[in-house]
Amino acid sequence: MILIDGKKIAAELREELKIEVSELKSKYNKIPGLTVILIGDMAPSQIYVRMKEKAANEVGLKSEVLRYPGEVEEKTILDKIEELNKDNSVSGILVQLPLPKHIDKQKVIESILPSKDVDGFHPMNVGNLSSGYESSIPCTPLGCYLLIKKIEPNLNGKKAVIVGRSNLNGKPMTQLLLKENCTVTITHSKTKDLKGECLKGDIIVAAVGMPELVKGDWVKKDAIVIDVGINKTEKGIVGDVAFDEVSKVAKALTPVPGGVGPMTIACLLKNTIECFKRSN
């Protein structure tokens, strides 16, 4: 079985991006800039943002984190986004989710210019992705896609099963695999015979937030399995896939942690650079 080393593949991607940033700098005499808005003091969000900042600096992006208290008014955030939309030195804007209850997530997402939406959550980018047009692609599914392509460059006619139908992962993942001529089945909590559906998959992407849901006997021999789940349990952090069981049958499998996570951050940097290139 191939253990898909997300850390190593993300490090390789960051090296490529570092070279690209220096080439862009010499061509345009400026560098892509990423601005992250962080609201409140939730520990996971703080950790994510620190990792994003470190990675951005590592590849040579201009990186800025704007921190606001949890009780900040929605209008303050919307005004700041409006300002960043007009700022030519900012290529990408990211508002770290989740947001406090009193701030309307959809309103915030829609206030970011689609051309600066590095998360790929703006309805216009969602629509462009599903129509097969150029768009920002959400970072986690993009990371999953790149990991799959590392193992199997030609996905023509493969059967892919997506477990989970979220806007963050399941739906955009479907669009990316359709574009590669896969036959895609989306499954979810109401799917009848989830095990039977998974067994048909040459590729399984599990992103449902249920610890070790996908068992060894759910996976056909030589399937590629991508585990997006991060679940805190008594035995530590586990994914949505029962790793020990599935590793005995799968052709390739991502570990948790160290699989999809590092790729998500590398893809955020990639998206920032793409936004810069499109606007220049």
SSE class: alpha/beta
Poorly predicted ranges: none
Whole-number count of domains: 2
Largest sheet: spatial strand order? 1-11-8-7-5-6
CATH topology of the largest domain: Rossmann fold
Write a concise synopsis of the structure shown.
It contains ten helices and eleven strands. With 280 residues, it is of the alpha/beta class.
Give a structural overview.
- This protein is of the alpha/beta class and 280 residues long.
- The protein folds into two domains: 29-113, Rossmann fold, CATH 3.40.50.10860; 139-261, NAD(P)-binding Rossmann-like Domain (Rossmann fold), CATH 3.40.50.720.
- Helices cover 43% and strands 16% of the residues.
- The protein contains ten helices and eleven strands.
- The protein has helices at residues 6-28, 43-59, 74-86, 105-111, 123-131, 139-151, 170-179, 194-198, 243-246, 260-279; strands at 2-3, 33-39, 62-68, 92-95, 159-163, 183-187, 203-206, 224-227, 231-233, 236-238, 252-253.
- The strands form three sheets. Strands 1-11-8-7-5-6 form a six-stranded parallel beta sheet.
- Strand 9 and strand 10 (236-238) form a beta hairpin.
- 43% of the residues are buried.
- The model has no long low-confidence stretch (mean pLDDT 97).
Give a quick set of tags describing it.
alpha/beta; globular; 280 residues; three-stranded parallel beta sheet; Rossmann fold; single chain; 2 domains
